[in-house]
């Protein structure tokens, strides 16, 4: 499993990187706008926190393929390191994927809601596809089932494209996406914490330490 953090807040990224085995960060225009700072400054601050070797996924905002391609060139020239350009699976987005793949860009097809969108993006050349699990669940669909169907298609056609499941609001959704064959998940900081936390873990650790300290030195087992 590849874990990514879905936020554009450099401080939250720094904190999460100290704890979790994160392979990088994903952003989208909404979470970047939330930071209320200059776009490039935010992206460069994120890059400074995660280093050049971790993945950074940044989305284009243009509506036409040529505009998306220009934005991809701009990002590649301004943000170093392991960069993935996120492109929505619209007709113009698919056209942009076909334009950018031969130019050597790493691409993440985003705003994926159906297995056929994912298959088209993969055949067009996307490195990752990002199905939106929570948005699917919220609209009466089944995010985990969509992830499973995409995985089945990619495996049966021998496609190298990986599934970066996205848009999670709780730990159960992440768990089900993992069971359904997602290669990677991008999770916001709160949901990432929810994957690790359990009250019985805290209770057990407290009990171990209390029992130890009843007999031995306080809070340590070495000199
Ligand atoms: C990932 O690529 C998306 O930016 C993100 O996960 C969307 O999440 P949301 O549905 O919480 O906005």
Please characterize this protein's 3D structure.
This protein is of the alpha/beta class. It has a single domain (2-197), classed as Aldolase class I (TIM Barrel, Alpha-Beta Barrel), CATH 3.20.20.70. The chain has eleven helices and eight strands. It has helices spanning 10-19, 29-33, 39-50, 65-78, 91-100, 115-124, 133-138, 143-156, 171-179, 189-196, 199-215, and strands at 2-6, 22-26, 55-59, 83-88, 106-112, 128-131, 162-165, 184-187. Strands 1-2-3-4-5-6-7-8 form an eight-stranded parallel barrel, surrounded by eight helices. The longest helix is centred in the C-terminal third of the chain and has 17 residues, at 199-215. The protein is globular and about 70 Å long. 41% of the residues are buried. The model has no long low-confidence stretch (mean pLDDT 97). The chain binds erythose-4-phosphate (E4P). Pfam families: TAL_FSA (PF00923). This is Fructose-6-phosphate aldolase 2. It comes from Hydrogenispora ethanolica.
């Amino acid at each position: 499993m590849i874990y990514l953090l879905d936020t554009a807040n450099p401080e939250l990224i720094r904190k999460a990187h100290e704890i979790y085995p994160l392979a990088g960060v994903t952003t989208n225009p909404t979470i970047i706008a939330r930071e209320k700072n200059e776009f490039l400054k935010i992206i460069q601050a994120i890059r400074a926190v995660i280093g050049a070797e971790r993945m950074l996924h940044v989305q284009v905002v243009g509506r036409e393929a040529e505009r998306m391609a220009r934005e991809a060139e701009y990002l590649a020239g301004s943000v170093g390191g392991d960069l993935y350009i996120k492109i929505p699976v619209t007709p113009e987005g698919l056209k942009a994927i076909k334009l950018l793949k031969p130019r050597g860009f790493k691409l993440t097809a985003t705003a994926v809601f159906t297995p056929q969108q994912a298959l088209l993006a993969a055949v067009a050349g996307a490195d990752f596809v990002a199905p939106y699990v929570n948005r699917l669940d919220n609209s009466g669909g089944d995010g985990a089932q969509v992830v499973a169907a995409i995985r089945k298609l990619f495996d049966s056609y021998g496609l190298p494209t990986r599934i970066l499941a996205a848009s999670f609001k709780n730990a159960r959704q992440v768990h089900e996406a993992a069971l359904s064959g997602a290669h990677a998940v991008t999770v916001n900081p709160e949901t990432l914490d929810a994957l690790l936390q359990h009250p019985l873990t805290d209770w057990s650790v407290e009990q171990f330490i209390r029992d130890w300290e009843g007999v031995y030195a306080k809070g340590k087992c070495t000199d």
